[in-house]
Specification:
This is Glycerol-3-phosphate acyltransferase 2, mitochondrial. The protein is mainly alpha-helical. It is 46% helix and 9% strand. It contains 32 helices and 18 strands.
């Protein structure tokens, strides 16, 4: 970056003469290089609010009214003012004095509470499978409970916790420039902790340091000691004993047995009774292994994002009222893919990709569904509360071959903020671009060209794959528009050649009913963890949201035809006749009655000069997933089936890598995309799973055994891809 800092940034318009995948870093046409701020206007947007439908009381009561007025604090910045003492010696011992003043609540004896829990009492009385029966002495059971509980946890030692927090504070100051925490988000967590109920924290594991960083942050903010779950297989007995005294949790081995096994019934009952009030994070010893890598580089900044807390009890009561009828992906899409019908079924998609573990199988089917849909809410809130980083924006620009990085970086940052998402950076535009390129240096090549400009070239192979992973972090920001753009591409696929001019595509009239159907098809095809739809949100309401976004961003223009109802007409008489008699909970499904209201509404693609590039940009955001699915469809006749899921995933991944070398589609050579394609094909009925001697086996279903059916599947997926 030394040569880059010395390079002169002059105004010059250049284009790629030989069609190379390059981007020019130039200051544009006399553009004023202003500072990039992480918000628009006066207030920072708040993201990550809980669901207003399933938890309305928490949405209202646990929201801090002045949250957007509060700024950030550096949790590892400890000075004399953070202690009760003053003086020359205090300034040198402020870390140690601060750690001594941390409030550590006393540990309560949980054995008696666990003994009185319903699960343990069922085991004692013999009502549970494999229970002890009436002949066993309760004192023996109490000793066994204490033994199991001793394996899980130990009373935290305040002195060790304070000593560890002091050492961790010094370590984090050596590792990071600062650890930023949004005060408004922390105020909501502190307000929830004051209610007296136990807090459960779920982490998305953005970093291997989460296991030690997040408990330190919460302890320093007065929330309390966080219990962190560790894998006992990766720890020695000595390390396990130390971590338990620092608040670590270790599940007993017999707790992971199948629910119908007579062994470990008491252990599973103790685990269920002990882990309702504890916050769980999965720690990893990769923290220690990565210290050398972190220490070798220069110090960086870290930001901790927290979503709005909500009441689990409120969710359990209110979420059940939002459940409706659903169908599997095979019932929804397979007849349409094979050409057996054209009408989209009037129902929601049921797609459950939550890992089926022993504790989950022990629950009733209704409770299993409640846990799975809770995970959707948590995933939606965690992604929404995560700030968009500069590397994701720069990787997107480089991957899509944008020419002027300075101007496009500023534009994409502004578009992200306009959509209500938060960004994790600020500063002068040129400095931001320089710093971001330095972070992406392993994946790009910087070449000096004439007059001091720099040419940024993505490195082929693994470099493009890494850029694709980073650009995927920007997809939730433009997800609605990207789904709409790909749906429009699918609607025009049978009418206009893909390589046709934009003016020719703008001639076609697109009815609102056709757009709804096409968006629904794409929503059903895309995996649930990509769409991040809340389980209480109807797909038909999301279709209207997608259409509204396309109109707001200027890609679609309403075309009023003769005799049609104006798009701005709310249809007062029809609303009173059809919707006012519905229950309040049915308004979310009001759009799913039929599409008769949309019969007379038509749209065209806008002919503004910026629309073709923006349309292509949106389509390319979803292209890695769709291209991976299309290649998975082409691989069906080449794969060796039957095979295990892991074995077939490895086969498909090797095929994606080979195709990337031949066609240059390195953004598709991702094992996660291979897994997503196989799971989607399994839900679609392309692959079937049967029990085998070494585990579940995948084989090709009879409906897609012929090459003709496989080609129909490939055509169905390729219609949404914009070349």
């Amino acid at each position: 970056m030394n040569t880059m800092a010395e390079a002169r940034l002059q105004t010059q318009k250049k284009s790629s003469q030989d069609g190379q995948e390059t981007s020019l870093w130039s200051s544009g046409f006399g553009m004023k290089l202003e500072a990039v701020t992480p918000f628009l206007g006066k207030y920072r947007p708040f993201v990550g609010r809980c669901c207003q439908t399933c938890t309305p009381k928490s949405w209202e009561s646990l929201f801090h009214r002045s949250i957007m007025d509060l700024g950030f604090c550096n949790v590892i910045l400890v000075k004399e003012e953070n202690t009760r003492f003053r003086g020359w010696l205090v300034r040198r011992l402020c870390y140690f004095l601060w750690s001594l003043e941390q409030h550590i609540p006393p540990c309560q004896d949980a054995s008696q509470k666990i003994m009185e829990s319903t699960g343990v009492q069922n085991v004692i009385s013999g009502r549970a499978p494999g229970g002890a029966g009436e002949g066993q002495v309760p004192s023996h059971v109490r000793k066994e409970v204490q033994r199991i509980l001793g394996h899980i946890q130990a009373p935290p030692r305040p002195f060790l916790l304070r000593l560890f927090s002091w050492a961790l504070l010094r370590f984090l100051n050596c590792l990071f420039l600062n650890v930023q925490l949004y005060r408004g988000q922390m105020k909501m967590v502190q307000k929830a902790s004051q209610a007296g109920s136990p807090l459960v924290f779920l982490s998305t594991h953005k970093s291997v340091l989460d296991g030690i960083l997040l408990p330190f942050v919460l302890l320093s903010q007065g929330v309390g000691v966080l219990r962190v779950a560790w894998d006992p297989r990766t720890c020695s007995p000595l390390l396990r004993a130390l971590l338990k005294k620092l608040g670590g949790l270790f599940l007993p081995p017999e707790a992971n047995l199948s629910p119908d096994s007579p062994e470990g019934v008491l252990a599973r009952a103790v685990v269920h009774a002990a882990l309702a009030p504890l916050g769980l994070w999965t720690g990893a010893l990769a923290v220690l292994r990565s210290l050398r890598r972190w220490g070798c580089g220069r110090r960086v900044c870290v930001r901790v994002n927290l979503a709005q807390p909500f009441s689990l009890q409120e969710y359990i009561i209110d979420a059940r009222s939002c459940w409706g009828s659903r169908q599997t992906l095979e019932q929804l899409l397979q007849p349409i893919v094979l050409g057996q019908c054209t009408a989209v079924p009037d129902t929601e998609k049921e797609q459950e990709w939550t890992p089926v573990t022993g504790p989950l199988l022990a629950l009733r089917e209704e409770d299993q569904l409640l846990v799975r849909r809770l995970s959707w809410h948590v995933l939606n809130a965690s992604v929404a509360s995560s700030a968009v980083m500069s590397t994701a924006i720069m990787a997107t620009l480089l991957l899509f071959k944008h020419q002027k990085l300075l101007g496009e970086f500023s534009w994409l940052t502004e578009e992200t903020l306009l959509r209500g998402f938060d960004v994790g950076f600020s500063g002068q535009l040129r400095c931001l671009v320089q710093h971001t390129l330095s972070l992406l240096r392993p994946h790009v090549a910087l070449l000096r060209i004439q007059q001091g400009d720099l040419l940024v070239v993505p490195r082929p192979g693994p470099g493009l794959t890494s850029l694709a992973r980073l650009s995927a972090e920007l997809l939730p920001t433009f997800l609605s528009e990207a789904v709409g753009a790909c749906a429009v591409r699918g609607l025009l696929a049978g009418r206009v050649p893909p390589e046709g001019p934009w003016e020719l595509q703008g001639v076609e009239l697109l009815s609102q009913k056709e757009l709804y159907c096409q968006i629904l098809l794409l929503l059903h095809l895309l995996p649930q963890d990509l769409l991040l739809l809340q389980p209480c949100q109807s797909c038909y309401c999301y279709c209207q949201e997608v259409l509204d976004r396309l109109i707001q961003c200027g890609l679609l223009v309403a075309e009023e035809t003769r005799g049609s109802q104006p798009a701005c007409d709310t249809g007062r008489q029809r609303l009173s006749a059809r919707l006012l008699w519905k229950l309040s909970g049915d308004f979310t499904d009001s759009d799913s009655d039929d599409f008769e209201e949309a019969e007379g509404r038509y749209f065209r693609l806008s002919q503004q000069s910026r629309c073709p590039d923006f349309f292509l940009f949106l389509c390319r955001l979803l292209s890695p997933v769709l291209k991976a699915f299309a290649q998975a469809a082409a691989f069906l006749h080449r794969g060796r089936l039957p095979d295990t899921e892991s074995g077939y995933t490895e086969q498909l991944f090797q095929f994606l890598r080979a195709t990337a070398q031949e066609e240059g589609l390195f953004e598709c050579a991702d094992p996660n995309l291979a897994i997503s394609a196989i799971w989607t094909f399994r839900d679609l009925g392309v692959l079937q799973q049967t029990p085998g001697p070494t585990g579940p086996m995948l084989h090709l279903s009879p409906a897609f055994a012929s090459r003709d059916s496989q080609e129909k599947l490939g055509q169905f997926i390729r219609q949404f891809i914009c070349s």
